[in-house]
# Entry
Amino acid sequence: MIAIIKYNAGNILSVQNALSRLGYESIITDDEEKIDAADKVIFPGVGEASSAMKYLKDRKLDAKILSITKPFLGICLGLQLMCKNTQEGDTDCLGIFDTTVKLFPPQEKVPHMGWNNFTKLSGDLFQGIDSDDDVYYVHSYYAEECENTIATCEYIKTFSAGLQKNNFYATQFHPEKSAGIGNQILKNFLGL
Amino acid sequence: MLKRRIIPCLDIQNGRTVKGVNFVDIKDAGDPIELAKNYVEQGADELVFLDITATVEKRKTMIELVKQIAKEVNIPFTVGGGISSVEDVSNLIKAGADKVSINSSAVKRPELIKEIAQEFGSQCVVVAIDTKFVVDTWKVFVHGGRTSTDKKTIDWAKEIEQLGAGEILLTSMNNDGTKNGFAIDITKQVSEVVNIPVIASGGAGIKEHFKEVFEQTDATGGLAASIFHFNEIPIPALKNYLRTQEIPVRL
# Structure
């Protein structure tokens, strides 16, 4: 059973749909016991950072997330909330990854929306993935590169497309919307 | 490098695709799910489903269809047609749509763009503009292009961006259905004046038209319907061609 953390963000259903296409059962929940009972945890989301952090804090899910020792995958806003802080709503975040989240300067179109490839890849999340494989992004804020970066992408800046620290993994792109390449990345996570 | 997107558009009426389709390997050409899955396999980057159902009651079938699409399709998809309230948007997003496209209702009440963006984020708000060259300027049309407005397309595009739209889907009525190519001039103007992605639509007939619009404008995507449905331009052939022309596309 995979727990998908419920919070006030969109796009949660598409993660559940992707898991069920891969043959995995999942539950969308903000209940600590159910999160504890799951084999793995996914922290998805498209939304606004400060209201999402407030939702987590109000339910003490911030402390819960930090205590998790099983494989954990943050997606998009999930990745950003796992960093130290974000310029979006000037919000303090979970601080799992040693980096900050900033708004793209408007040198190119913002949001960064569409398919883009990788510039650097490492680690077991990206087994079988090449740097010219494309995945789907939609975001206006980006996490700066840091020692936890396991994949980078180029758009206006070089930013963290993937981050990992111990059992905590995160992708800025949406594996659940990235066709076959996304499936492979999800399978890699589910197989950890 | 960010790729230019190739986006097939499917017209839906009462839960069925309405335009004819001649993919050989499709058993039921009217089944939007089967058609959508076929497009995903061909390498479409996104899909747009436009609900042209006339009555409000039958729109409920669209919600059910969106749920099915979300279960089967692993690329982003947009749903448009008849959306006039935050509640309509909420129903579609909850059913699994990644983005919604609004048109006439945004012209009628521009605040709707802001309301949707605040509730669900800019990334899910696509504003569709139907535009036509009238006398000496490009104007905005509504109600499926039947009704003229006094809005200039360039001004409306800027306003849309300020209200929080995440993307513009720009259809030239002068070009739509002609297969003579996209409207390069207005697509160039709009895509240069706003800093949000612009999808060019209307007029694609041959592969070279996509090259033209991607080389000469800042459009980040090209949308078409019949040339894909009738397999006149198979998506893999189009993308391979664009890559030989050094246009970045996902293969």
